[in-house]
Amino acid sequence: MVSFFEERPWNMGAGQNVISDAKSVLNMSITMTVSAQKPPAPPGYISISRKKLLQNLEINAGGRINAWVDSMRASSPTHIKSTPSLIDDQSSWNLQHPSALEMFEQIIDASTGKQIVMFLDYDGTLSPIVEDPDRAFMSKKMRKTVRKLAKCFPTAIVSGRCRDKVYKFVKLAELYYAGSHGMDIKGPEKRSKSNKDSESVLFQPASEFLPMIDEVYKQLVETTKSTPGAKVENNKFCLSVHFRCVDEKKWTELAQQVRSVLKEYPKLRLTQGRKVLEIRPTIKWDKGKALEFLLESLGFANCTDVFPVYIGDDRTDEDAFKILRDRGQGFGILVSKFPKDTSASYSLQEPDEVMDFLRRLVEWKQLSVQAQSRM
Fold first, then answer.
1. Model pLDDT, residue 81
2. pTM of the predicted model, to two decimals?
3. Domains (range + CATH), the chain
């Protein structure tokens, strides 16, 4: 077991997320690597036999595909019409998940005396959802805001995207990055005294799946090329099949193409997001587990004085929202203009509101530090 984090108090002025020695996560032996060493073993497979999986796929495939497609249609703003019933639903949902901006003072009151730790999704949270996922650029204003945020609080980006791709979008070395739905976690680099070598945290619980993921990626690209607008994205430890630029009349066909490939790979599972199907290893790891791992890594595993805030817009973020609700610590904030089933406590409508909320957090922290310095 290697001690992979150095324990120090959080220093607002440092602008660097400093972290502590952590115990094994979920009773696993975790080896942190600086260079390309053998990764730790996966934290366990979801128990499912190949025979049972294939039977379930054949029996339930049609209904499951239709459910995926119907859910994607329902989440599309072009299909949401304003009706008296919807307005009532919106009002009721807003009461249960009020705006984090309107309830800012309440959130701050709840965090009094505690260390705030920030977790942020990328697409739809820090950047708008766009037709081409390769052009989901972060605005300069948002980047500036997140940079200031990281000087005030430990901050992590938790995304379904490949970690390297998210880093290229965000371009902030002082953050933690959890890519591939938390299956690829890397901390800020720390320069040695010689300033020649650098050390960084690396945790990749699904490394053994890389050859399989690459194989499936090639098959999906070949299988879906007949569907105009279909895009398969390799996120290293998971894959995304994007429906955003596909004619809705072709969505069922595309979903069937994806299923036809996946039925031969029982160690991979299929989940649905916003106009996307996600292919992931069947290990018990998700954004919620990544949040717990990072909290433990930061030295807050069993602390009562930590206040995690997770902001995200997708179904995959629900795993993190549920963890916070179960822990009874911090809050989840869903980014959505429309009512959704969620375990988040608060809501924001779009990335611009996320930026406003983050700015208010930074301003509150700066004023708090100034007040303490005058005492």
1. 52
2. 0.78
3. 84-190+199-205+285-373 (3.40.50.1000), 208-281 (3.30.70.1020)
